[in-house]
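Teaching note: in complex prediction, the entire set of molecules is handled at once rather than each chain in isolation. The prompt given to students was simply: 'Predict the structure of this complex.' The entities are:
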Amino acid sequence: MKSLRLVILAVVLFFVLNFTVQRLEGETLRTLAEKLGIYIGYASINDFWRITDSDKYMEVAKREFNILTPENQMKWDSIHPEETRYNFEPAERHVRFALENGMVVHGHTLVWHQQLPPWVSGKSTKEELLKVLEDHIKTVVGHFKGRVKIWDVVNEAVSDAGTYRDSIWYRIIGPEYIEKAFIWAHEADPDAILIYNDYNIETINPKSNFVYNMVKEMKEKGIPIHGVGFQMHIDYNGLNYESFRQNLKRFADLGLKLYITEMDVRVPQNATPKDFEKQAEVYRKIFEICLDNPAVEAIQFWGFTDKYSWVPGFFKGWDHALIFDRDYNPKPAYFAIKEVLEKKVMERQK
Ligand code: G3I
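The expected output is the structure of the full assembly:
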């Protein structure tokens, strides 16, 4: 009798599992992420609507992703090129594409030391610069109120050594520009999720320690900061995964939401199939750790096809950092990520 029951149970389990696996076929990263209640996304390239292969680009983007970040066209030099002129149209194209396709927009970025137009760099007094910053943040966030859900309010304000970065903002205003930026963004859109975003803060090190203390203090003071963005520009040697796990945990324990904002995993330019497998394992491991932490809300890549990636232009000898190749074919990294998502969906369905 007991063995009959076991046989019946095994048969039922077989059918349930088979049914689940069949259901997962035909899924994309987007549909799987949606089942898990997270965002998966990409940095959306400049003028994507007029590149030669824009139809293909858009088709893959909306099939695979449910969030996007404009890679450059919300940055200061693009959106506010002259003191009295804002240039919203290119940014609007990204927002329209996202909203028309049921995707969320992650705005990037309100305060940064790079891609500043000359008229900002020319300001020399604290009063002038504070005024300019307040106007910029309130105008940009106000313009996209209700349409941009998450903002990188302050980007890369800390040095690798773990000190405030020596930028125009820090030199002329002092560290208070950071808190002020969050307060102004919150005033302009009280529903937006406001985050601090940086690179090399994925593991526990002097820089992430500094950021940890900085955001902890902001939380304690009641500054409206809601999350931290870990950029994750890494190579195929990966990182210290245990340290990454612990680091995510300590930020989550502060009550912050966590975002992987700009992930790419570069490999040598003349990569072999083995190198692509190694790259896939790095993507797999990062996804596994992220999905183990319920505070992780979104994982975004800094692009999706190797055809359009900042990597070869910035890292000599490196390339192929994304999950689709130059012809939009999914790479081993894509399948590794998909497997992790599928496994998680099946675990939840048990
Ligand atoms: O705007 C000029 C344009 O007028 C000119 O014709 C063209 C010629 O090359 O250059 C254009 O500027 C380029 C700009 O991208 C395009 O919007 C810059 O040269 C180029 O340096 C700039 O690179 C961007 C970089 O940020 C700037 O530092 C990359 O595309 C972008 O991927 C990268 O993104 C950053 C994130 O914002 C922050 N985290 C790191 C990440 C990678 O560096």
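Point out the following to students. Residues 46, 71-72, 114-115, 155, 199, 231, 262, 310 surround G3I (CB under 6 Å). The beta strands are 39-44, 67-70, 104-111, 150-155, 193-198, 227-230, 233-235, 257-268, 296-301, 318-319.
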